Each structure stands twice: as C-alpha cells, then as structure tokens.
C-alpha cells in the first residue's frame, strides 16, 4: 500500500514550496502499521521467540528492521551552528531593485517567494542551551523561480577573522577544550581568549559578542546581516556592491546576562519555544530586507576595505534601503526532515547576485557543500525535500548514495546527439547564470592586503555608539569571560587589546580582574607567516570613520509595541478578578500573552467567586521566562502571596532584571515584602517601571507603555538586589 500523503497545514499559508513539500508528507491517521516494505504488522509488542520464554529468532525481520533503522537514526551534527530552530515563510518585495539586479525575486514586486529560515547558535552542540552568549546564525533559503538563493548570515554584521584559512583555528579555540570537552556552549575559557588575544583583527567582533546582541530576548527580535559585501548584477551586466540586512519589526531586544544564565537552566529551549509558539499563535515574526548599495566606482572611497569582513558600513555613510518583507508563518512538520536536513550554501546564488573577493566569503564557497557531503551522507542532499528548488532540475549528474531522481534516457553527457542535445545550455538571454567578468591582473600571493590592517577603529566606533547601560554590560561581559580564564597572561594580553579600543573600557575590566592595564604590545597578528615582514601583520591605528553610529546601539530600537511579550500575573485564591480581567484584556488587546501564575495549578477562586484557570504554578514558572509582572489585589490573594517565598523571589528577580512591574494599590503589601519594597514610599523610584495605583485603566495604560520600553536598565546602578 503506498504511503498516504497528507498536505501540510495550508490553512495559514499556501505557496509553491508548501505544495512541493506536500509530495513527501506522510500521515499515519487511520492507517495500519507497516514494515518499510509495506507489509502490515500484526504485533509490534513482542519479538519472535522459540517459545514464550525462549531465545529470539534471527528470522524476525520485523524486529531486525525496526532496530536497524533505530541504530542509524542519528547523523553528525553541524560542526558549527549545531543548535538551531527553523520555520517556513515568505518574502514579499515592495521596492524593485531592477536598477541594480536582474534577480527576479528582487525585481518583481508582485512575486511572493517561499523561504525556509534557520536560526542557530554557533559553538554549542545540538542539545545545548539557546541562551548561550554567542553569535546567532540567520540563514535564509529563498526558493525563487530561478533556483535557490541562500543568504547565510548572522545576527552580527562582522566576523572574527579576515581569512577563511583561520576558521578551523577560531572554532577549535571556542569549542569545548579537547582534553576534557569543557565548557559546553561557552566562550568563557582559556583557549578562546588565548586565540582572540593573539588576533587583533577580532577586536571589532569581540565588541559585538560581548554586547547584549549575543543574548537576544527572542530570535524574532534580532537583526540579521549577510556580513560580506556581495555584488548585484543588472540586466546590462553592471555591478554594484551590496550589504544585506534584516531589520526585525519588533525591534532588537536582549535579556540580562544573569537572566540568560537562569533561563539556560529553567528552559534551555527558550528561543525555540518562543519562535514556535509565536508562529502557532499567528503572531508571525517579520523582518524587512535592507540593502546598502555602493556603486562599483566607489569601491575605494571608504576608509576601510569593502572586502574586509571585520568592517561594517556605517548606516550614516550608506543608508539602508528597506525593500521587502520576510514573514515566518508556518512551523516545520518534522524537525529532523526540515530543520536538521536543511543544507545552506553561500554559493547558492541566482542570476543577478554574485560574489566579491572577500577572502572569508571565498573560503566559505568551498566549505558548505563539503560539510553537507559528510553530514548528509552523499552528493544527493539537494534532492531532500527541504533542499530541492521549486523549479525543475535537469542535468547530467548521476547516481551516488540515496539518489531519488530516476533519470530516463541513454545520455548523461553533453554534448550528445542521441538525446537530441538535451538538456541544453540555457544561454544568458534565457536566464542562464554568468559570472561577473571582474578584471583581474595579479600575482599569486599568500598575503594580507594593507587595507585590512585597521583592526580597532570600528571596535572603538561600536563601543562609543553604545548607551551607558550597554557599555556597562560590555564591561561586565568581558570581566565575566576573562574572569573564567585561568591563565593570567591571557587576561593581561586581552587588556592590552582592549586598551587599543578604549582606555576606560580596559581600565574598568582591569579593575575587575585585579590587573593593571599593560602598555599595549605592538598589536600584531600572532599567526604571522614564518617569513613575512612583521609590519604587514601589525595593526594600523586609525581614527574611527565617525564618532558614533546610532544604528549600532539597541537603545533607540522599536519601543512602541508589546506584541508577543509574555506577562506573568501573580494571583492566589481571593484575587480581585475584576482588576485581573481588566488588565488581562488590555494586555491581550495589545497582542501580548498573559499567564496566570498561582501557588497551585487547577483553578483559583476570585473575590466574586469566579473560577479562574491557572496557567502555571509558582513551582513551574520562573520570572526569567516573562517580560513583566502584574500583581492584582484582593484580600485573600495578597495575604497568601506576601507570605509565599516563591512569589517574592519572582518579583525580586523581575526587578533585578529591570522588568516592568505593576500592582493594584491594595497589593502593596506583597511588594513591601520584596527587596525593592523599600522604594515604595519614594515616588521617584516608583517611576522606573514599578507602577502601583488603584485606577486599573490608568495602571494598564502605563504598564503597557512600561513593557514596550523593554527594560529599565538604570536600576542596575543598584547592584545589590539579592535575587
Ligand atoms: Fe558558516 N559554516 N562558515 N559562517 N555558517 C556553517 O555549514 C564556514 C561564517 C553560518 O543553519 C557550516 O551547513 C567557514 C560567517 C550559518 O544550517 C560550515 C567560515 C557567517 C550557518 C561553515 C564560516 C556564517 C553556518 C556548518 C569562514 C555569517 C548555519 C554546517 C570562512 C555570514 C547554517 C553547515 C544552518 C554553517 C563554514 C564563517 C554563517 C562548516 C569555513 C562569516 C548561519 O560549512
């Protein structure tokens, strides 16, 4: 009996890729159990034995098949970016880029292109926590009508190294140390900082990774960047340089580091779950595609090299044009089949998009196919449903492990006459890909360009562009990470590097490490080739291209929405159900999610005897999993919560992590038991995101605007909150 095919859930979305995937989706609804050969199985509980207490018989093909398949269920995890979460969606262009590119999906605004997106952390294993301090991968596969285009980017616009040949070293340094495989999903250890402290070119990226960008509140609230400079090629064959950006419509937000560490224990799947639930709830994550376009003639106009992946182009110098929207609107049907087997490749481009000579990009062009060959087990991974394009594939490639396509005919070579010359070459006019004919006249050398030697100006620009709380977080992150480093010489060397970024930054970190900031050594890339002149590898110290760039700070991000924020309501029997429901309604109206958390599960009884279903108990919930807290009044509830250590801890921790807190006026007795309760009398302290009043309409209005502003980082000045 053939496998019954079920359509994916198309109620939310229908596009060419969804239809394509439908061919392979299986549903067991109302079906028999079968072997892989289609034989119906009568008994899946007992193996075949010689007597009911006897030995198992080799002939039991049902047992053998089941166990054999199970034995082979795992495939190697990705060597980097092993931990991830994916989703389907669409890309809608709203501004044609025809002037710059002939790529159909970037010129035809009537076209909606299906996409699959995978987000990831870099260093951890498949089972590691989502909240590790790390770069996040942001990989987008566009299933265009001209073939697949993969934009395999990160949530940071620059990278640690300038040349692909250093990538294995970087990854070996950051992964768990080889002798004891410790630590998991963390850069806070000796080998990572040993490497970084010897590689001045990583200074800019280190600023990003030590910033709050490395601990996002949600995958839906991160920016994405193509990192490298690419080329767009128009119909006339003209080239423009381009940097790709993804701008999240919910803004860019992070959690606090202490919170990230707690989430890692309370819910290591926090980001995955958040993405999954947002999509299930119909709150589809959205990003705008941004492009920075630079005419070919301006290649050398900037004080940095466009080919250097440790540099960004400040938005003040080249504005980001927003040209289309990415919407994620369908969760995968099967994690392994889709999210795990999806194979991205930076070399998957369509006519109208081309590469530059960025030496990091060039190395990546080799790596991605190579890694899929081992990870997915052979050369036919492009046929896996999630990877295959929505347009037909005809060529003379044949055979190999797990070939799915049944190629008919006698010929598998070109030119041929027996097959009528088919498949034939398309030709440029019919959309055939032609590489941009970049003029090259050069000697073969193993060298770094002089224009790649400024390693610090943009690190300084980044630091200078941060708000004070963001700067404090960078100081704390560096102090934490270097504090975990055992070798004092590495700490010292890093202080030398930091002093070239910002003296004050180095001084603050030095203080926390109990070390004086050393005079910086000549900042030389220590992986210098044996016979190279040292000067070639010495950093050039130049002024930042501008003093500050607003786009580099998260302080000015979108702060006018609470859509998809999760709000905790602490309540117990006797709660004022009128204020509780008024607040809940106001929050839901703004697109937030509300969880009622009580000392026990089941129902609680409101003051009007209303039965209120409880979503979480204080045992299963934790403040770190919420964006804000509301405490309604009601005599019984207040009496119960003020003596509940878990409820008080919940509030203290929410306060410590700078979250908005609201309470009915008669719930003051609960707040008084908290650490910050001492501020209750002080009206001014109460304005920093802690709200208490009896007018529930006003309270909900002010609470909503407090949640939208995300965090009240100023509270961190008071560092003694014992939560
Ligand atoms: Fe990757 N990278 N990378 N990378 N990368 C991989 O390919 C590599 C780099 C990025 O969700 C691997 O399929 C080299 C920069 C993402 O499946 C591997 C170099 C950026 C993902 C690989 C880089 C990225 C990967 C491992 C330096 C941002 C996850 C598994 C030359 C622009 C894609 C795989 C997914 C994955 C190699 C540097 C982004 C080994 C050699 C820079 C988002 O091929």
UniProtKB/TrEMBL annotation:
InterPro entries: Catalase, Catalase_AS, Catalase_clade2, Catalase_core, Catalase_haem_BS, Catalase_immune_responsive, Catalase_large_C
Stretch list, region Disordered: 1-47
Reactions catalysed: 2 H2O2 = O2 + 2 H2O
Enzyme Commission designation: 1.11.1.6
Known cofactor(s): heme
Family per record: Belongs to the catalase family. HPII subfamily.
Protein name, UniProt field: Catalase
Organism encoding this protein: Pinibacter aurantiacus
């Amino acid at each position: 009996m053939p496998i019954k095919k079920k359509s994916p859930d198309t109620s939310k979305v229908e596009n060419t890729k969804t239809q394509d995937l439908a061919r392979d989706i299986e549903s067991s609804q109302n079906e028999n159990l079968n072997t892989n050969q289609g034989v119906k199985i009568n008994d899946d509980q007992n193996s075949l034995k010689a007597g009911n207490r006897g030995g198992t018989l080799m002939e039991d093909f049902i047992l053998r098949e089941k166990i054999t398949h199970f034995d082979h269920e795992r495939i190697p995890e990705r060597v980097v970016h092993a931990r991830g979460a994916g989703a389907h969606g669409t890309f809608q262009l709203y501004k044609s880029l025809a002037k710059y590119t002939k790529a159909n999906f970037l010129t035809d605004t009537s076209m909606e292109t299906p996409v699959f997106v995978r987000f990831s952390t870099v260093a951890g294993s498949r089972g590691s926590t989502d909240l590790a301090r790390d770069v996040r991968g942001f990989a987008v596969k566009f299933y265009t009508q001209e073939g697949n285009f993969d934009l395999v980017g990160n949530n940071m616009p620059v990278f640690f190294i300038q040349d692909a040949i250093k990538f294995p070293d970087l990854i070996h340094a950051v992964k768990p140390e080889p002798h004891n495989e410790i630590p998991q999903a963390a850069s806070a250890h000796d080998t990572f900082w040993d490497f970084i402290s010897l590689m001045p070119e990583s200074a800019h990226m280190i600023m990003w990774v030590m910033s709050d960008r490395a601990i996002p509140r949600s995958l839906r609230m991160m920016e994405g960047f193509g990192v490298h400079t690419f080329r767009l090629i128009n119909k006339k064959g003209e080239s423009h340089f381009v940097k790709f950006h993804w701008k999240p419509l919910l803004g860019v937000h992070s959690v606090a580091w202490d919170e990230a560490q707690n989430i890692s224990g309370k819910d290591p799947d926090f980001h995955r779950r958040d993405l999954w639930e947002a999509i299930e709830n119909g709150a589809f994550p959205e990003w705008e595609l941004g492009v920075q376009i630079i005419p070919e003639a301006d290649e050398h106009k900037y004080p940095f090299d466009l080919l250097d992946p440790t540099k960004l182009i400040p938005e003040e110098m080249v504005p980001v044009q927003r040209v289309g929207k990415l919407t994620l609107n369908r969760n995968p049907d099967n994690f392994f089949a889709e999210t795990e087997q999806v194979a991205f490749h930076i070399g998957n481009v369509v006519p109208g998009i081309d590469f530059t000579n960025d030496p990091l990009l060039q190395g990546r062009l080799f790596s991605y196919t190579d890694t899929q060959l081992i990870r997915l087990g052979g050369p036919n991974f492009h046929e896996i449903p999630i990877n295959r394009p929505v347009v037909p594939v005809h060529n003379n490639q044949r055979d190999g492990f797990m070939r799915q396509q049944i190629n008919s005919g006698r010929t598998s070579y070109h030119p041929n006459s027996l097959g009528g010359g088919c498949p034939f070459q398309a030709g440029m006019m019919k959309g055939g890909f032609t590489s941009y004919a970049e003029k090259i006249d050069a000697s073969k050398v193993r060298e770094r360009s002089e224009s790649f030697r400024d390693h610090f100006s943009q690190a300084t620009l980044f630091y200078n562009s941060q708000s004070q709380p963001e700067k404090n977080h960078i100081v704390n992150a560096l102090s934490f990470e270097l504090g975990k480093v055992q070798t004092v010489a590495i700490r010292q060397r890093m202080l030398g590097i930091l002093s070239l970024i910002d003296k004050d930054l180095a001084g603050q970190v030095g203080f926390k490490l109990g070390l004086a900031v050393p005079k910086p050594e000549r900042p030389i890339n220590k992986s210098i080739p044996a016979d190279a002149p040292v000067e070639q590898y010495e950093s050039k110290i130049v002024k930042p291209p501008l003093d500050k760039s607003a786009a580099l700070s998260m302080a000015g991000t979108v702060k006018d929405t609470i859509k998809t924020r999760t709000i905790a309501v602490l309540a117990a029997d006797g709660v004022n159900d009128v204020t509780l429901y008024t607040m809940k309604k106001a929050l839901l109206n703004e697109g937030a999610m509300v969880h009622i958390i009580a000392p026990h599960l089941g129902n609680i009884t409101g003051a009007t005897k209303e039965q209120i279903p409880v979503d979480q108990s204080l045992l299963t919930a934790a403040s770190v999993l919420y964006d804000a807290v509301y405490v309604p009044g009601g005599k019984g509830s207040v009496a119960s919560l003020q003596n509940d250590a878990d409820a008080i801890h919940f509030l203290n921790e929410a306060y410590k992590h700078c979250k908005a807190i609201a309470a009915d006026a008669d719930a003051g007795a609960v707040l008084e038991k908290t650490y910050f309760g001492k501020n209750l009398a002080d009206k001014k302290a109460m304005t920093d995101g802690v709200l208490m009043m009896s007018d529930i309409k006003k309270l909900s209005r002010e609470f909503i605007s407090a949640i939208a502003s995300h965090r009240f980082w100023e509270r961190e000045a008071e560092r003694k909150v014992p939560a």
